[in-house]
Amino acid sequence: MAEISALQAARAQYQPKLPKALQGPVVAVEGKATESVGNQKEIKELFPNTYGMPVITFEPGDQPKLEPFNVGIILSGGQAPGGHNVISGLFDGVKSLNPNNKLYGFILGPGGLVDHKYMEITPELMDQYRNTGGFDIIGSGRTKLEEVDQFEKGIQILRELGIKALVIIGGDDSNTNACVLAEYYAAKKYGVQVIGCPKTIDGDLKNEQIETSFGFDTACKTYSELIGNIQRDCNSARKYWHFIKLMGRSASHIALECALQCQPNICLVSEEVEAKAMSLDDVVTYIANAVAARAAEGNNFGTVLIPEGIIEFIPAIKKLIAELNDVLATPEAQALSNADEQIAYVKSHIAADNLKTFESLPADVAAQLALDRDPHGNVQVSLIETEKLLSRMVAAKLAEWKKEGKYVGKFGTQHHFFGYEGRCAAPSNYDADYCYSLGYNASRLIANGKTGYMSVIKNTTKPAAEWIAGGVPITMMMNLEKRNGKMKPVIRKALVELDGAPFKYFASKRDEWAKQTAYVYPGPIQYWGPSEVCDQTTKTLQLEQA
Q1: What crossing angle do the helices spanning 253-262 and 216-237 adopt, rounded to 10°?
Q2: Domain 15-215+427-491: which topology?
Q3: Was domain 218-423+499-540 assigned CATH 3.40.50.460?
Q4: How much is the pTM?
């Protein structure tokens, strides 16, 4: 066994809290039949065996005695703090049903299921990873489960290991795959259940049933510590504007939460940029005005928070990207291997207004939009150095204003991108408890014969004993969206709601924060001490549940 830190050794002794309903035998209480959030007819046709199932809530009751069974688990997609606690919760839950039950982990994500690479999670192994960050117990991967050949290879190893149910821990794409797999196995009557768990630090996998995705709490607290440190330095040196890009390609939940915790001078919210149909120049002017106003007061320093996906939310660029996605999905475009040829092809195949937008962008940004795609066919916005792009454009605008006598300050800049720093942090008490409950709850969904469900824990701003445990059909969250040029069933992402309490509170304060130096320095995550220091949920959740 590798050496461990004093913190990890002490955290290993922490026993996560469970909802009262999961502290003994349970009974499943079924609600009304459900339907998908969009495209009901099409989703029902695609998922005839798992559509319309009721929401489940667990209450204390009599748990029937079950014969021994085995469970498989997969970590899918990017890391998020608390993944190991989902596994430990599932492990303890499965063992509590029958000590002879076994838990198998598939190595490096869904690919491990297809390639038959696995390991048994033993008590000795599990004890090394309790309350730790990371996904390194079995690793993760981004293989998409969507082909019949993959499903059939999966069932081979599931049968060989006597696995009754498979738990897939992931974000919206991974849980979409879980839903597709559950439907396939149900249609074939293979007798294997599939359960999902909501994971993503981005915070965009949530709805009326899912209060928050796990890892969001820890990641935001980790980033907020770093932002607070920078703000303390910023307020000490008083000579730099710090442009800080934060993870969150499809939604601005992380940036907004960090702004609520740290009170920076500026926080951009992608969803607002889109709603106001702001151009790139509008965004730059907004920042430059704040810089100039502070400079007029002698404050040539400040902090700017930028969600990494903001470029996709600027309407003109979003429209451009949508057409680029279609053009680049064609066989002709994919056959081109030379970057110059691809860019030339793009320019000759997009509409005139999109071409104008394309040619207005800095060459490096335009090239990234035209060339770089992730496995889902999306622009890899994390590769675009938006923080440098914006600061460069702000500097150019301020230089113009200085010539016109409209600006008298100095504009020095520093740049940061916080992403990987938050994905594998040791989970906060909230995430440790929440994730353990999600895993333990998944064992009860399995014991009650459910498939195509996501494990959900609600009421989490209350003490853990008062949390509500249950399950929601994954089909309930789905709609059709265009991916790689084709319409596909996917879980709808949750964006920042501009009429929601978190954004409205932020909007009521941001003018004050822009002018004043009202920084808050949250400090590091605390694991022991007063509850008001150690057990707080995110500001987002507090405002939403108030």
Answers
A1: 50
A2: Rossmann fold (3.40.50)
A3: yes
A4: 0.94
